[in-house]
């Protein structure tokens, strides 16, 4: 249905209404053109128009009925609808195709609806993406790709979607080859530097653990830091092995490399979560904390939990060759990773898992910052604490809790190139940041050093005990 008052705007509207009787369910094939509108497939010149395939699954529950299949082709150039705020991509030929079957909402199809959009050879710098109009996105609606898979071709793109609504092909500018190659070079060099500083940091943590072996809180904190930096070291090593061997690795080897890289990434995320949990215990719970073999149990969780996740992902065959392509579909790198077929595994185990960790750690960071500022304001922390040192400690905590990984959520669309550079550089330097942070925070540790986390924790415990 069309909203009242909108009919006068639909100059480019073409509608095909088919009454389809279904005693035996079968696929329905329809053709559409931006200039000629929809029609039955056999009346359209081959290769000149797009095609729609409606699977028989749609009609199974309607086999004894006559249903209306309506295909609407809209030229949105002169319309005020289907305009997304801050839209970066361009709608192919200003064409939007709407599909409805009967009066019911259809979604969650196992056999997807296929729309084939025909077009000229796309210019360099353009990547097609199948999208549908989501009226709930933002304030005025927007394009969304959930449930749709894009299969780009030379002069046509196939969209496979698990629901019926208004669809189009969005042409998004993408990274060029030189930018992608530069990012790969920066990432490779950064991994090498990060590994060197990770070794320095682990050695420094071992030295400090021996020096302050009688201070239990510092001892546990340094053990956590060493494990986190160790996971970063393994992640960088896995990436270098992956990028160096994946191009010529056999399928079995590639699956192992993909699982290893995924395992190291999950370990890194898990240890950042454990760092946040430790800060939560120290600054929020404060009193009455004693867990037998606490650090050993954290190690079991930090290194053991990712094994379960990777094991499940490996059983369902999630790992294999993954290609990184430029905007003109040129393959610039092949990595052993989660395959495109199992992209849902990536969204759940990486994006979803890190999102939960990030929200928790940022909440803990806010509590730690608030308590530190309140102690500074009441004069509880006095002495020669310099502002730059306080800022550096805060920045180190921010990095320690994995905030630099959150930049990955901003690397989408045409504006993502600068963010990609920032993400790659900051994560490459994460090992250096943690090393400098540890040096400033823990060494030299003298009686006059009142700005450290350990002093704040001790003062907080004393204050809480006096209040009780």
Automatic annotation (TrEMBL):
UniProt cross-references to SMART domains, sorted A to Z: GPS
Keywords: Cell membrane, Disulfide bond, G-protein coupled receptor, Glycoprotein, Membrane, Receptor, Signal, Transducer, Transmembrane, Transmembrane helix
GO cellular component: plasma membrane
Residues covered by the G-protein coupled receptors family 2 profile domain: 183-442
PROSITE patterns attached to this UniProt entry: G_PROTEIN_RECEP_F2_4 (PS50261), GAIN_B (PS50221)
Main localization, broad class: membrane
Bilayer topology term: Multi-pass membrane protein
Record flagged with keyword Nucleus: no
Transmembrane segments annotated in the record for this chain: 183-208, 220-240, 260-283, 295-319, 347-369, 390-413, 419-443
Compartments in which it is found: Cell membrane
GO molecular function, one term: G protein-coupled receptor activity
Highest taxon in the source lineage: Eukaryota
Pfam families: 7tm_2, GPS
Positions of the GAIN-B domain: 30-177
Entry's Gene Ontology BP terms: adenylate cyclase-activating G protein-coupled receptor signaling pathway; cell surface receptor signaling pathway
Record-given protein name: AGRG3 protein
